[in-house]
């Protein structure tokens, strides 16, 4: 029976030495490594980017890499000695089984060659090759017709060696399916069917008129993940829109202009916000040095200095006013003109 990934104990993310990670156990399920992607990741890591943790299986002695080959190589090229890793408990075979379904929803998108390589990894294994096409498809995150096609292409001459039973999983039930009849011609019918009976398509049990092929096709569609069905629907919608694209050029042009105006407005707003943030740069430094207490203490000191300055200038002003009044009186006693000390105008003369 498959070592279902759901039964693996959930570990925790930690940092381990790259030199301790083993990549030589056949756990790489891709067709080949994409060196352009490694270079792109390495440049980002060197610039300070943080990538999701890789996944390794620890058997008590070795860390077997199951997911993250591009990330590990990129860290090495960036001069890093350690990498973040989600550590799960398991053997090298657990890592292989995990790897065939990796990158289904993240990382570098798998090519058809990558998917085929993952399927072959299980078909070439003595234990896993006995699984049904659907179970292998579930582990590799592909469609079961894809598995059946690869199985037929790579083992057509072994048809007579098909085992009498195959491990099959339906929902949560696992059982052995009798496969003795696979590849064998059916017994000749006792009577040749009439043309009328041949023309009638097989009808399902519900009497809906669907042929067996239609029923299989509907079952395949129903088993697809919702995300894939949504993507196919969006693709069909995009194709329909493309057919009427010439009539929508003016509308799309107006929309592009509108979006450009919105981008310009957002850039202006962003510049204003940056200027506003710059006003509080000094306060931020104070906060980083001592928290709110430091900010408040510095503001209190500024207020104290300003109060002292106001008091000193007030005293100076009073002193100047007294001195001016004294000189005014002396000038009046000598018979000189009177000057308003506030406006500087001659009062009489």
TrEMBL record:
Residues 249-316 form a coiled coil. Keywords: Coiled coil. Residues 13-89 form the ParB-like N-terminal domain. The lineage of its organism: Bacteria, Pseudomonadati, Pseudomonadota, Alphaproteobacteria, Hyphomicrobiales. The keyword ATP-binding does not apply. It holds the Pfam family ParB_N. This is ParB-like N-terminal domain-containing protein. It comes from the Bacteria.
